Amino acid sequence: xxxxxxxxxxxxxxxxxxxxxxxxxxxxxxxxxxxxxxxxxxxxxxxxxxxxxxxxxxxxxxxxxxxxxxxxxxxxxxxxxxxxxxxxxxxxxxxxxxxxxxxxxxxxxxxxxxxxxxxxxxxxxxxxxxxxxxxxxxxxxxxxxxxxxxxxxxxxxxxxxxxxxxxxxxxxxxxxxxxxxxxxxxxxxxxxxxxxxxxxxxxxxxxxxxxxxxxxxxxxx
Length: 221
Known about the structure:
The protein is mainly beta. Helix content is 5%, strand content 28%. It has helices at residues 3-9, 63-66, and strands spanning 72-76, 80-81, 85-96, 99-110, 125-126, 143-150, 158-164, 170-174, 210-218. The strands form two sheets. It has a seven-stranded antiparallel β-sheet with strand order 1-3-4-9-6-7-8, with no helix packed on it. A two-stranded antiparallel sheet has the order 2-5. β3 and β4 form a beta hairpin. The longest helix is centred in the N-terminal third of the chain and has 7 residues, at 3-9.
């Protein structure tokens, strides 16, 4: 039998130097298949894991992706006010990871006190459902949240909201030039608007005595 005939029936691996085999010629249990990744798309990745080294540059740890908090929590909260009386108070929030979105509404039944020294007292709020993130270095009054509150107060009825770090409190300032930065960081740790500034939130028409607003801030955990 010639060498060709011998190799034909006892084909050695050393004789395979080039070319390709059809899939039908290979037993799935006898070889490790080579997969062509040149046309790989994200839609093909439906399960399994990818080694960190495959991410390219800049590299990062795949563990950081799975450890991101995506827990969603919803619930109610009750805003509080440093002066005045309120009814029909309602508040709801949704927390995704450390990010908290709150909304609230209430009716003013009595305006903040403006008798004597109360007139210059800061009009502050509290009751946020989670303590805000704490920033321990640098500036002493970090703001870690923002928002908006509407009322019928004639001194600019639209008020910007801010949330200080490491706190469940929130404060107000005008968004149109009135007391935008006045008293910031002084008594009460907030600033902006006083009881005197908010003295007209209540109207004889109860339908015009509502407060409502929204707050977005970063929680401590």
